[in-house]
Amino acid sequence: MSASTRAVLGKVRQMIPPMLDKFHKGQLGRVAVIGGSQDYTGAPYFSSMASAKLGCDMSHVICTPEAGAVIKTYSPNLMVHPLMRQSPTDGQRAPDAKDISSSIIEMLPRLHVLVVGPGLGRDPLMQETVSRVIRAAREKKMPVVLDADALQLVQKDPEVVKGYREAVLTPNVVEFGRLWDSLHLGGAGSERETDKVERLAKALGGVTVVQKGSKDFISNGETTLVDDLEGGKKRSGGQGDTLTGSIATFLAWRRAYLDKLWDVGEDAMGPTELLGLAAFGGSAITRECSRLAFLKKGRSLQASDLTEEIHTAFLGLFGEVDGEASEAKL
């Protein structure tokens, strides 16, 4: 890893809570993943399990009843809420998105971070529901990570997140291109490798964008971080869900850091810097999981293999974060 990546990881380590007896359930992270529909149940599971295995105290999935019945069989460790609804296909009248979203919005005071998009699909009722939830989260200044089909919503209506600096977008190369075109940003501009992510983040009013690739570029348009950690060479579906869940947990730890639930020292970092570091931490964990899983599985690697490597990746990058000797890469 480069010296700059090592230095950023050192800062990320400072925002990770130590394991202290005084903490109680829920203080170190309450994350909800909104997604999961009749056809897509794996993505919200991988995202919420990444959040849980990284160290989030309470991981929720908010999905449709059809998806909820399936996701509950994947793990008893997740709290599954079948509150979402898809448009009916039998000619019946569609439920009202306002009514559906209200039950989800009522949950927001019990949560620290939302992930929106894994397994969401493009059903109009689902899209309208999450649009209302995102706006409500924005009013509460709650961090929101958007991926997959939630980015379709941003593509159609950038105002949903424009100017909201607590939002993190994690587009793949195709999604990035669609967002770029929807904002009419034109040519690539300069030849600096971080130029496009910076322009996109600025066009969206300072949201944080994670541009995934051979390196991950993380920018809010003003400050840009580059994660050049080695990843695996297999690009199986679902790996991006590990990223969203991991970023969400780091964002929950950001809340604990800002609340000073432990002694963070005299030179405490501010909210904006911590948000970028949270995105970088999620990127680093995901790339290390991918590397470790690829070493074991090679071309047979699947998203579930990354899930199994999360704790090992954490220890390799950060150690135990308890003030004791460790084998961290830092």
UniProtKB/TrEMBL annotation:
GO CC annotations on file: cytoplasm
Keywords: ATP-binding, Cytoplasm, Lyase, NAD, NADP, Nucleotide-binding, Phosphoprotein
CDD domains with a match to the protein in the record: YXKO-related
Location of this chain's protein in the cell: Cytoplasm
Cofactor: Mg(2+)
Keyword Cell membrane part of the UniProt annotation: no
Keyword Nucleotide-binding attached: yes
Main location: cytoplasm
Binding-site residues for ATP, renumbered to this chain: 212-216, 231-240
Catalytic activity: (6S)-NADHX + ATP = ADP + phosphate + NADH + H(+); (6S)-NADPHX + ATP = ADP + phosphate + NADPH + H(+)
Binding site for (6S)-NADPHX: G119, N172, V173, V174, E175, F176, G177, R178, D241
Top-level taxon of the source organism: Eukaryota
Enzyme Commission identifier(s): 4.2.1.93
Enzyme class (EC, first level): lyase
Molecular function GO labels: ATP binding; ATP-dependent NAD(P)H-hydrate dehydratase activity
PROSITE patterns referenced in this protein's UniProt entry, alphabetically: YJEF_C_2, YJEF_C_3
Stretches assigned to the YjeF C-terminal domain: 8-317
Family annotation (HAMAP family): NADHX_dehydratase
Record's function text: Catalyzes the dehydration of the S-form of NAD(P)HX at the expense of ATP, which is converted to ADP. Together with NAD(P)HX epimerase, which catalyzes the epimerization of the S- and R-forms, the enzyme allows the repair of both epimers of NAD(P)HX, a damaged form of NAD(P)H that is a result of enzymatic or heat-dependent hydration.
Family designation: Belongs to the NnrD/CARKD family.
Family matches, as PANTHER family: ATP-DEPENDENT (S)-NAD(P)H-HYDRATE DEHYDRATASE (PTHR12592:SF0), ATP-DEPENDENT (S)-NAD(P)H-HYDRATE DEHYDRATASE FAMILY MEMBER (PTHR12592)
Protein name: ATP-dependent (S)-NAD(P)H-hydrate dehydratase
